[in-house]
Write a structure and sequence with these properties.
Layout: E1 4-9, E2 12-17, E3 22-26, E4 33-34, E5 46-50, E6 55-59, E7 66-68, E8 71-72, E9 77-78, E10 84-87, E11 90-95, H1 123-133, H2 148-155, H3 159-172, H4 181-191, H5 197-207
């Protein structure tokens, strides 16, 4: 399966295959990735370029800026699998092509089916991941992973303990040090099947 973008729209999640030398993102219908539903997106907002060995993203003078893993970008940035792009109020996740990737047509999923198993996790680390990812199944049109404070409250532990567990999880999932690490960890945990939609929904129901 080639590299693709996963886009969350009011109508549901949509996968768009990335092909050719360049992919444009914007509100105009002429873009490769058209976000006509989002009034905060510029007509031509951002461009993804195929570098051959990877894809990159750059903002093209948009009104509200382009964000990569929570950080506003001012120059071209190379994308890694699981990176989250924010374009206006739209959330796009970049998934890199990997041999053997398959996604069932119409399947409700956050991303392509896992291609590598998750690392060995302790029971507490799994609990931390579930709490981290739980907001992603909320009705919020632009969800974000749980904050350290919220996770500490939900797990009845200190924020320092949560940070230590998160650090262990960053190491196990090989999350780079730069950018919004909790976003990338949540995306990677779901992509690799460490956390499933069913687990998150069950957890939310128990919470309620």
């Amino acid at each position: 399966m080639p590299s693709h973008l996963e886009i969350r729209k009011p109508s549901g999640r949509e996968l768009i295959t990335l092909s050719g030398p360049r992919v444009t993102v914007g509100k105009a219908s002429t873009n490769s990735v058209s976000l006509e539903h989002d009034s905060t997106v510029s007509r031509l907002h951002a461009v993804l370029d195929n570098l051959g060995f990877a894809w990159s993203v750059r903002d093209v003078g948009s009104r509200n800026g382009t964000y990569l893993n929570g950080e506003k970008i001012s120059a071209e940035r190379v994308l890694r699998s699981g990176d989250e792009l924010r374009v206006g109020n739209s959330r796009l996740i970049f998934w890199e092509a990997k041999e053997g990737d398959q996604t069932a047509a119409g399947e409700e999923t956050f991303a392509a089916a896992p291609t590598e198993p998750p690392p060995q996790l302790t029971r507490r680390e799994l609990e931390v991941l579930v709490v981290l990812c739980r907001p992603l199944v909320s009705d919020d049109p632009f969800p974000a992973p749980a904050s350290v404070r919220q996770m500490a409250q939900d797990l009845f532990v200190t924020e320092a303990a949560v940070k230590q567990h998160l650090q262990n999880l960053y190491d196990k999932f090989a999350i780079p040090a730069e950018g919004e690490r909790r976003v990338r960890l949540a995306n990677e945990a779901i992509r690799r099947g460490a956390v499933t939609l069913a687990m998150l929904r069950d957890s939310g129901n128990q919470e309620g």
